[in-house]
Structure formats: structure tokens, C-alpha cells
Amino acid sequence: MREYKTVAKAYPKKRPAKERTQDYYPIYHNFEENEAKAQASRCLQCPIDLLRGLESEFTFCRTGCPLNNNIPRWLKKTYEHDYASAFELSNARSPFPEILGRVCPKKGLCESACTLEKTPYHAVSIGNVEVYLNEKAIEEGAVPFYGRASERTFKVAVVGSGPAGLSCATFLLRAGIDVELYERENRVGGLLMYGIPNFKLPKSVILRRFEWMKNAGMKVHLNTEVGKDVSLSELQEKFDAVFLGLGVPIGRSSGMENEDAKGVHQVMELLTQTQKNLLDHALQQSILRDKHVIVIGGGDSAMDALRTAIRHKAKSVTCVYRRDEASMPGSPAEVVNAKEEGVVFRFNALPKKALVDENRHVVGLEILETYLDANNRLQTKEESVQTLPADSIILALGFEAKRFSFYEELDLAIGRSNTLIVNENKETSHPFIFAGGDVVRGANLVVNAALDGREAAVAIARKLGIMEDQKLYM
Q1: Which residues is 333 bridged to in the sheet?
Q2: pLDDT tens sequence across 359-405
Q3: DSSP labels for 105-156?
Q4: What does the pLDDT average to over 91-116?
């Protein structure tokens, strides 16, 4: 392998802002072969397994990855141009590495834990290599292994086709368990399909995964809402176990006056409708074209909404965030992308009131200037009221779980903010009903939802007595 000092961390090439805002295609180019090989060559092949148990003293890419992905091994295989082996290793612990390579933040996870991050040359570009090697292997004919349908004796219902449900279904199939997936929308993918814009995650990548799983024997029930079209009790009686990957579908309130006015929308309304229009070739049905749009919030969903509004050809797009730029919870790279694409940021601004006309339609937003007091608490300057023009206001303030009626039906234990309580095996208070992802954690990372799905599948397989943990993945 090449000595790391000769090559620094590389980033994927980015399309010019003027070009990328005209469409919904991904803004980053995938690595070329020479770029992926150069980054793979930088891996020091740290002796992670020899130092297992000493994570408090040493951090490595694998200890930084929630899935404990065997990153050094597939980096080595990528460097050697053995893409089939790299693909197998990458897929062993991850249910959809070509998706996670695109949407994982990396910062604070694998790349922050890489030994080279402590040097001036910085970490290996792990996520971008992961995308490259998977796409290259698929191009060469690689397909993930989902077990053999003829060997399956039990069947499990998975409710929700987002990252937790998709992960659970993946490892259940591998364990030799039949899976039937229930999705209330007319397309699979959940958060991956409708909550992450196409310019960050192309939907063809998600649909390809589900097609492989259907070919492996998974049955999918679309337009089927549990609690409405089919009861949870029915599923519990029909299947050997049930996994709930219900997400957190309710957007949080801003607390401002006139929040119920026409033109005020939750962020998922915008993102979901935009993606549906894109898939249905109906982009002319824009609700933001030629409008002054304000997005309230500072996380990644807010950045997604801002950048989506730009592509809707809004007249102006403004982000209102209550603290300073350094305090924003979203990815700094996404803030940079938004600025490049024409978004205006108003920091230290708190929404006070949506201004409306005689028909209660939004015409503006009153904001107050904020500051931190001596105790580091956020305060407002009451005399600092300003008015911003607005035809549409998007609330991107986080999400909460929904209290479904069937929770009481089966007496499922409910925790804070309507999340489900599970044990260390992801099992709820009702035997053989498991749950994971945001419905348990609250709004969280896709990779953590994937981990929950995997752990639940392992626990289900073990409870059914058909497979030991270590046989589910390498």
C-alpha cells in the first residue's frame, strides 16, 4: 500500500451551483477509479482486532462506525481492484452500503475515528470509496446475497420500508426467514425515498435494492397502512414476529403566532410532494415558484428544504435560525452548498409571528433578534422586531413520533415523546413484536436505524431458534 503522506484526503468533484440548481440530479460526482484507488491506498490497515476492547484508548474507522463495518478489509480489496470481494465485505455488516456511503455524515463517525484524521493529511475518504466500490462491483454483475428462499421456514412482517425496516428485512432474509413488507405509501423507501432529496440520494439506488430483495422472495404490500388497512393484531397472529419501523412522521411546532395560516408547511410536506412530483414527472406543480420562501430551522432537513426551494425557482429563499452559524446542527458542507446556490441566512433570529392577509394567507414573517445571556441562555431583544417578506414558510424544526392507536390495542409500552420502549434485543413489551429506528430513538441518523434493524433481525432469528448471531454477518 502507498504511504499515506504522499496523498491527502480527497473530496468528490462538485457540479457548479448555476448548473445543479436547474435540476434534481446529485450535485457530487462519484469517484473515478484512480481517485478511489488513491484513497484506498492511504489506509494504514490498523490492527483493530488485536486492540479490541481498548476502544477507550484507541479509535479506528470500525469503532467509529455504528455497524462496525470492516472498512480496512474492503479498502484493501478496492486498492487491489478485487471489487467482488470488496463488495461482499462491504455488504456483510451493512444492509445498503451504497446508500449509507452517500447519506452518512462520516464526520463524528468512521472518518473522524480514522487514525489519519489526526495528521495534516486527514482521514481516508471512506464514504466515497464505499460508493465507488459498490457501484463498480454492481456494474460488473455483483448482487447482494439474501439467503435461499427454499430454506425459509418462518415468516416475519416488517412495517415500514424506511432504513430500519429495510435493514431488518435484509438480515431476516439472510437468516432464512420469509419477509412481508407493509408500506402505507405507493412507493417503498420511507425516509430514504421521501425525506432525502434526489440531489443527495438518487432514488434509482433505493429502488434497485428493493428489486433485489423482491427477487430474493420478499413480498411488498404498498398502499397498506397498519392500523387502517390491516390491524397489528392480524399481523401478530399471522406472522411469527413483527418489526415496527414506523419513523417519526410528525413535524414540530415553532410556537409562533398564526402557525396555522395558509402557506405555512411542515418540511416533510415540501420534501415528500417534491419527490412525488419528480417521480411522476409533474414538476410543473410547484407550490413555491416565484414566491418568497422562508425556512425556519438549522438542521439538515432545513438545508434540504432551502435547496429544494431554490430548485422550485422561488423568488427568494431565506433561512431563519435562532442561534449563530457555528451552532447550527446541520452539516457545514450543506450550509456551504446552500449559500452557493443562493440561499440567504438570517442568524440569531427567532420567528415571532406569521403575518397574514384577509384570507389568512402568509404575506410575511416577524422575527426578533436573539442573543446569549451571561448564563448562555437564549434571549430576545423585544425592541428588535423586523419583518421579512414571505409567501411560504417551511417549518424544519425536527420530528416527533406518532401515538398510533394500535399501541393501546396490544398494550405496547410507550416512552418519552410517543417513542416505543424496547429492550436490548429491540423487543417491545409485547413478545415477538420488535421495533427500531426513529420510532424508538426519536429523529436520528440513517446508520443508527440500519443498526437497529440488524440487531432486531438477529434477535428475531435467535428467538425463533434458527440461527446464531455471528452467522448473520461476517
Answers
A1: none
A2: 999 999 999 999 999 999 999 998 899 999 999 999 999 999 999 99
A3: --TTTHHHHSGGGGSTT----HHHHHHHHHHHHHHTT-------GGG--EEE
A4: 95
d(CA 131, CA 331) in angstroms, rounded, equals 19
Using CB atoms within 10 A of its CB, is residue 294 exposed (0-12), middle (13-18) or buried (19+)?
buried
Residue that the C-alpha cell 423487543 belongs to: 427
Are the C-beta atoms of residues 298 and 321 closer than 8 Å to each other?
A: yes
CA–CA separation, 195 vs 160, rounded Å? Answer: 14
More confident residue, 340 or 285: 340
The Cα 236–Cα 233 span in angstroms is 5
Residues 242-274 have pLDDT tens digits of 999 999 999 999 999 999 999 999 999 999 999
Q: How many residues does the chain have?
A: 474
Strands in 344-346's sheet, in edge-to-edge order, are 264-266, 392-395, 292-296, 316-320, 344-346
Set of cell numbers at residue 278? 419528480
**β-bridge mates for residue 361, sequence order:** 262
The residue among 270, 279, 184 whose CA lies nearest residue 223 is: 184
Phi/psi at 81 (5° precision): 65, 20
pLDDT score recorded for residue 474: 41
Closest CA to 342 of 105, 29, 22: 22
The structure's pTM equals 0.94
Residue for cell digits 494504514? 44
Pair 367, 268: CB distance under 8 Å? no
Residue 8: Cβ within 10 Å count? 15
Neighbours of 14 (CB within 10 A): 15
DSSP string, 350-396: EEEEEEE-TTSBEEEEEEEEEEE-TTS-EEEEEEEEEEEE-SEEEE-
Return the C-alpha cell found at 165.
425496516
Residue type present at position 267: V
pLDDT in the model for residue 466: 86
Percent of the chain exceeding pLDDT 70 equals 96
Examine the pLDDT at 280 and tell me if it is beyond 60.
Answer: yes
